[in-house]
Amino acid sequence: MKFRNYLETMTGIGIYPLISLLIFFIFFVGCLIYVFKADNNKMEEMKNIPLDE
Questions:
Q1: What is the pTM assigned to this prediction?
Q2: DSSP labels for 1-51?
Q3: How many Å is the maximal CA-CA distance in the chain?
């Protein structure tokens, strides 16, 4: 038996792709909001962290 056959026999398995898509979408939107609301001075400071050492 193939792996797909095992998945087809499980009830309620179709919700997992939807949940993973929602998690990805929420994370992506959260990252976008963080980037656009972040302070430019803070971004400059974070950009120069590797050069300060």
A1: 0.60
A2: --HHHHHHHSTTTTHHHHHHHHHHHHHHHHHHHHHHHS-HHHHHHHHTHHH
A3: 58
